[in-house]
Amino acid sequence: MTRTFDDLVAEAAAAPMEGWDFSWLDGRATEQRPSWGYARTLAGRLGGAEAVLDIQTGGGEVLATALGAASARPALVVATESWPPNVVTATARLHPLGVALVVDPDEPPLPFGDAAFDLVVSRHPVTVWWEEIARVLRPGGTYLAQHVGPHSVFEVVEHFLGPQPESSRNGRHPDRDVARAGAAGLEVADVRDEELRIEFHDIGAVVWFLRKVVWMVPGFTVEAYLPQLHDLHEQLQDGPFVAHSTRFLIEARKPA
Length: 256
Description:
Radius of gyration: 19 Å
Shape: globular
CATH class: Alpha Beta
Keywords: Methyltransferase, Transferase
Largest sheet: 8 strands, mixed
Protein name: Methyltransferase type 11
GO molecular function: S-adenosylmethionine-dependent methyltransferase activity
Number of helices: 10
Order of helices and strands: HEHEHEHEEHEHHHEHHE
Oligomer: single chain
Domain Methyltransferase type: 53-144
CATH superfamily: Vaccinia Virus protein VP39
Number of domains: 1
Strand order of the largest sheet: 1-7-8-6-5-2-3-4
Helix content: 25-40%
CATH architecture: 3-Layer(aba) Sandwich
Organism: Cellulomonas chitinilytica
Distance between the termini: 63 Å
CATH topology: Rossmann fold
């Protein structure tokens, strides 16, 4: 039986938001993954590291997966997180793995001493404090991260907010991070970027996504955007709503 607009929206509006787990979208939306496989790549690096820092770990899902697949466990693994629901989830997930979780407001300085880590990692950081990353890295240490690239999911953003200025579309360009890493004294060893396809199959998936990723449509509520939601629901009767994301893998090293 075809579910109504009201049923789908009500279900998504009541769904839990804890952690950084997107499994609620299973069967409702799909996102192509980068070919390099960040968790797999991270697992390969963990085996050779002594002291690791995972910045903005979210619910700890990716770090836990990588640790489980690593050939050896680093002597010290620390993660930071700022959002209270994620802190609860990440603590429960990472403490049994021996990971220390530090509640950090996501602004400089990082609460660690100079040259504390030989590997600093992050997946989809909201902000990147390059000077702080360089400070806490040991000489010869590495920053390895997957960043969100420019104009990600802008098809959804512009459906709700209208055309956006070019400056906002390209604010996360990899060239910017390469320049900032260099300015902080790091040497960029590798940058790879890919455009990936996203499909939303029902309006509930869109509502849940915008509740979860709050910076896409700031202040989003069902009531405030009801006309746009109805219009998108009608479009979805003819097939999935297609959007695109960009992701880039960046590796930077602190000179020895």
